[in-house]
């Protein structure tokens, strides 16, 4: 099958939204890994005085991860799928969390504007039609020295990791997705990861978009070599670099 894009992908997520949390709960490490990527942003003082963007928030798992590490920050969470957002908004949230229905390519049109002090983009880039344009847009939304964490299925490039990913998808994820009536979405998941960047290629993509201090960090457990955090910072002037906090993402 061809990859799902734009409205077709949003529609598939809308359909899967009610059962999505059930499947992710069965994924060992899913929520812990999101929290790890959020911690890797190195946000100080529980996020006090900071403004954060959760880009591609889905049903709110990544939002909860940000909230866990930065409970005092203002958090704006955006997603293109109305169904996924409905599931997120139905959960209890403090008043410093706001949800916005917007695709990653159309944030400003939906009233989402910077500056943000940090952005978490979880399981997003391989799902957009033009990841380079999205990264460039994210960079313009960040304050100078603002931090980016791309949390993504980005294979290491080792043949074993590709084999493990394909085996888990074909043996576990696809049968579960078909049983729930969402086979197209989870076939997309399998192919989108295999067709997307390796971890190093994703880091290079982030560099090309104008980010600095780019670093790739793996996850522990069975997803080592499969899920990575790509950390980066928006550029700053030379005089401000020592005070930007960008060094902490190296």
Automatic annotation (TrEMBL):
InterPro entries: SAM-dependent_MTases_sf. GO terms for molecular function: methyltransferase activity. Keywords: Methyltransferase, Transferase. GO terms for biological process: antibiotic biosynthetic process; methylation. Pfam families: Ubie_methyltran. CDD domains: AdoMet_MTases (cd02440). PANTHER family: TRANS-ACONITATE 2-METHYLTRANSFERASE, TRANS-ACONITATE 2-METHYLTRANSFERASE-RELATED. This is Methyltransferase. The lineage of its organism: Bacteria, Bacillati, Actinomycetota, Actinomycetes, Kitasatosporales.
């Amino acid at each position: 099958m061809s990859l799902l894009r734009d409205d077709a992908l949003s529609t598939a997520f809308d359909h899967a939204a009610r059962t999505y949390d059930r499947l992710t709960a069965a994924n060992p490490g899913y929520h812990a890994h999101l929290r790890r990527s959020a911690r890797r942003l190195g946000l100080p003082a529980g996020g006090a005085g900071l403004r954060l963007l959760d880009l591609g928030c889905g049903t709110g798992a990544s939002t909860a991860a940000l909230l866990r590490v930065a409970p005092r920050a203002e958090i704006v969470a955006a997603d293109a799928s109305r169904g996924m957002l409905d599931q997120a908004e139905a959960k209890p949230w403090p008043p410093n969390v706001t949800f916005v229905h917007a695709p990653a390519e159309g944030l400003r049109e939906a009233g989402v504007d910077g500056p943000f002090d940090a952005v978490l983009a979880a399981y997003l880039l391989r799902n957009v039609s033009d990841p380079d344009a999205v990264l460039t847009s994210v960079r313009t939304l960040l304050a100078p020295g603002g931090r980016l964490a791309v949390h993504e299925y980005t294979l290491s490039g080792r043949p074993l990791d590709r084999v493990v990913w394909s085996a888990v998808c074909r043996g576990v994820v696809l049968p579960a997705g078909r049983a729930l009536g969402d086979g197209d979405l989870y076939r997309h998941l399998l192919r989108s990861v295999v067709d997307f960047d390796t971890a190093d290629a994703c880091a290079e993509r982030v560099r090309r978009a104008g980010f600095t201090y780019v670093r790739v960090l793996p996850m522990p457990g069975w997803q080592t070599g499969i899920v990575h955090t790509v950390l980066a910072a928006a550029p700053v002037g030379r005089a401000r670099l020592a005070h930007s906090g960008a060094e902490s993402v190296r």
